């Protein structure tokens, strides 16, 4: 199915998004104290507790799992409906991710874009970019999907 996506969404969903998930995994697993401390932009981050370290490891594991599920789906299915439903599910998750980040940061920090640290840009900027790309793709703004060999073969059989 990845080959049938228009070029820009294919690049975003099959290269950039998996790379960002691997980066999230690496940050959360290799330096969980830093990962936890950077979640909310502040002058003097609070130290990470043992509980938050475990949560960072678990979140990192979820990032890696999401990366693997997404790659498996895009590279193995030939069903456009499956991909569209997957992207809708991710769009709903994007809204939750942004909403919970906003809640945790508070409106003042959320609206102070110039004060965002790298983690805030990853949590908000990257997620909003992915959400907008999903909306644009699902709305057809990138044009129709290309018909792959499986779709062409199925179409020939039905005629």
UniProtKB/TrEMBL annotation:
This is DUF7704 domain-containing protein. The keyword Amino-acid biosynthesis does not apply. It comes from Hypocrea virens (strain Gv29-8 / FGSC 10586). Keywords: Membrane, Transmembrane, Transmembrane helix. PANTHER family: CHROMOSOME 1, WHOLE GENOME SHOTGUN SEQUENCE, EXPERA DOMAIN-CONTAINING PROTEIN. The chain crosses the membrane at residues 12-35, 55-75, 87-106, 118-137. InterPro entries: DUF7704 (IPR056121). Signal peptide: none annotated. The keyword Membrane applies. Residues 3-144 form the DUF7704 domain.
